[in-house]
């Protein structure tokens, strides 16, 4: 049990990717929070991490795709997929363990920013005077959003034996489902269809959860989204059996 | 019967890779699976190991159905795929512990020790797989296949790409394994079959062309190689390009 999960986590920590992802995420969010003119906490004068929660979805599109890109594609390239799929474990178990390994790294990366949260908490006047509900909701939203990206990334990785191709497919799909769908939904000519398109965008539900109100409809949407892409990954796995 | 297949067929679109093959292999036999490149050897092995299902036909390993109970079959089978795929950046022990884990081995440490000993990997156990010579990598591949003490070993070209000394060493390892396991190994080196196998199954263009004991095939002074060539040619299956 969990052998694949452990191997994946170990391989993240043994490769540079994990540290680059964590470092880049901390540096970029830190820059936007504290230093970038006009939007930083000091310029706005508000003790909140809102700036970070606004920018993170876009940073994570790249970083989460980088985490998942080699997950399955590399096994295909090396041929080791034939070894692990002829062991007494199911395809679904392989996929889930790989998925949760990627999710662990994502969660850990997000946790690192609690350092910023702590700073903001202490900057507030009086200390601790922040909208805690909104902050926790935003963290939950960000985690669920990253979990969706990870499921897209794993799916993209199963489509090819080339990591770079997987990275690009994953980024394009993630960007589409986060931002483009909402932009299409806002087109006036689409009218009602537009509004339902909007409902399918990740951004819509991310913003909804970020307000600090955890609506079960949003949770169901995120979990459904993840299931669809993990199910798609399983289909690609099984496609070797069709012909 | 350890391995039994009946009318096994695999088609890719219109191309027939394996064409109604039937054979059964009793427990403890070492069988050489021969045939020219593209004859369907690897495809047959992939079906027996549960990597792909047959288009039609049935098969069992130790009486368990290949398709219905694929997971159960995989517990009984050790498989070394063609080209011996490995994670080059893992350590030998780390890799074998990982494989033991996904093979459902309960006591991982002793199983890894045993596999390392059986394949004589002891001097290289602390190295990374990527640092090993091809011969030692092949041993890691074998160790991987037999870590869960399978009853049946399926080895796809276990000696390809090795130098003559390594070939002899790997053959010895397989011969030792064959003492208490059923082994099906593919190759196109005839001497290898004479050195290791009790029996030969020959296929050409997906069809079974011979299935006999090595002693029978070589008894009237003919070499296996001549037999192979005449059988492969007899149905105009092999064309020289």
Low-confidence segments of chain A, given as residue ranges, are: none
Principal-axes shape call of chain A: globular
Q: End-to-end distance of chain A, in Å?
A: 32 Å
First-last Cα distance of chain B: 40 Å
The average pLDDT of chain A is 91
| Oligomeric state of the chains present here | heterodimer
Please render the helix and strand layout as text.
The complex is a heterodimer of chains A (243) and B (241).
Chain A: H1 3-14, H2 16-35, H3 41-44, H4 50-68, H5 73-78, H6 81-84, H7 91-112, H8 114-123, H9 132-159, H10 163-186, H11 191-200, H12 202-210, H13 216-238
Chain B: E1 3-12, E2 15-25, E3 30-34, H1 41-48, E4 56-61, E5 64-65, H2 70-76, E6 77-80, H3 92-102, H4 108-118, H5 134-146, E7 152-156, H6 164-177, E8 182-186, H7 190-196, E9 199-204, E10 207-213, H8 214-217, H9 224-234
Parallel strand pairs in B: 3-8, 3-9, 6-7, 7-8
Antiparallel strand pairs in B: 1-2, 1-4, 4-5, 9-10
Helix pairs in contact in B: 3-4, 4-5, 5-6
Folded structure, characterized:
The complex is a heterodimer of chains A (243) and B (241). Chain A has 243 residues and is mostly helical. In chain A, helix 2 runs antiparallel to helix 4, helix 9 crosses helix 10 and helix 9 packs antiparallel against helix 12. The longest helix of chain A has 28 residues. Chain A is globular, with a radius of gyration of 19 Å. The mean pLDDT of chain A is 91. Chain B has 241 residues and is an alpha/beta fold. Chain B has 9 helices and 10 strands. A 6-stranded mixed β-sheet of chain B has the order 6-7-8-3-9-10, sandwiched between helices. Chain B has a 4-stranded antiparallel β-sheet with strand order 2-1-4-5, covered by helices on one side. Classes of the chains: A mainly alpha (243), B alpha/beta (241). Chains A and B meet through helix 1 and helix 6 of A and helix 2 and helix 3 of B.
Task: Briefly summarize what is shown.
Chain A has about 240 residues and is an all-alpha fold. Chain A contains 13 helices and no strands. Helices cover about 80% and strands about 0% of the residues of chain A.
């Amino acid at each position: 049990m969990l052998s694949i999960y452990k191997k994946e986590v170990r391989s993240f920590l043994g490769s540079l990717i994990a540290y680059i992802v964590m470092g880049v995420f901390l540096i970029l969010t830190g820059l936007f929070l504290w230093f970038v003119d006009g939007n930083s906490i000091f310029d706005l004068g508000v003790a909140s991490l809102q700036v970070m929660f606004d920018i993170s979805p876009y940073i994570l599109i790249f970083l989460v795709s980088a985490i998942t890109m080699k997950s399955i594609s590399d096994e295909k390239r090396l041929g080791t997929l034939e070894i692990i799929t002829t062991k007494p474990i199911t395809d679904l178990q392989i996929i889930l363990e790989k998925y949760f390994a990627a999710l662990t790294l994502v969660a850990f990366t997000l946790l690192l920013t609690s350092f910023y949260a702590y700073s903001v908490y202490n900057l507030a006047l009086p200390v601790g005077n922040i909208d805690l509900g909104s902050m926790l909701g935003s963290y939950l939203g960000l985690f669920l959003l990253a979990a969706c990206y990870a499921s897209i990334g794993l799916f993209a990785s199963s489509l090819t034996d080339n990591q770079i191709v997987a990275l690009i497919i994953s980024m394009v799909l993630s960007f589409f489902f986060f931002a483009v769908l909402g932009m299409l939904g806002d087109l006036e000519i689409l009218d009602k269809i537009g509004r339902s398109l909007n409902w399918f965008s990740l951004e819509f539900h991310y913003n909804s959860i970020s307000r600090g109100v955890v609506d079960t409809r949003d949770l169901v949407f995120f979990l459904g989204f993840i299931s669809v892409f993990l199910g798609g990954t399983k289909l690609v796995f099984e496609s070797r059996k069709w012909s | 019967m350890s391995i039994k297949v009946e009318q096994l067929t695999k088609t890719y679109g219109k191309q027939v890779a394996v064409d109604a093959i039937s054979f059964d292999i009793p427990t403890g036999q070492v069988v050489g699976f021969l045939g020219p490149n593209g004859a369907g050897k690897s495809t047959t092995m992939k079906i027996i190991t549960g990597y792909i299902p047959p288009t039609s036909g049935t098969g069992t390993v130790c009486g368990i159905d290949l398709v219905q109970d694929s997971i159960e079959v995989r517990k009984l089978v050790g498989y070394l795929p063609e080209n011996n795929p490995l994670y080059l950046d893992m350590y030998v022990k780390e890799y074998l512990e990982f494989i033991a884990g996904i093979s459902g081995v309960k006591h991982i440490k002793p199983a890894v020790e045993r596999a390392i000993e059986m394949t004589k990997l002891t001097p290289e156990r602390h190295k990374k797989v990527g640092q090993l010579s091809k011969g030692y990598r092949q041993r890691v591949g074998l160790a991987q296949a037999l870590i869960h003490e399978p009853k049946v070993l399926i080895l796809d070209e276990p000696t390809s790409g090795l130098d003559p000394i390594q070939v002899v060493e790997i053959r010895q390892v397989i011969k030792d394994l064959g003492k208490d396991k059923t082994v099906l190994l593919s190759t196109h080196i005839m001497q290898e079959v004479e050195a290791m196998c009790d029996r030969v199954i020959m296929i050409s263009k997906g069809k079974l062309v011979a299935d006999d004991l090595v002693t029978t095939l070589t008894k009237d002074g003919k070499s296996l190689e001549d037999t192979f060539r005449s059988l492969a040619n007899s149905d105009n299956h092999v064309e020289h390009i």
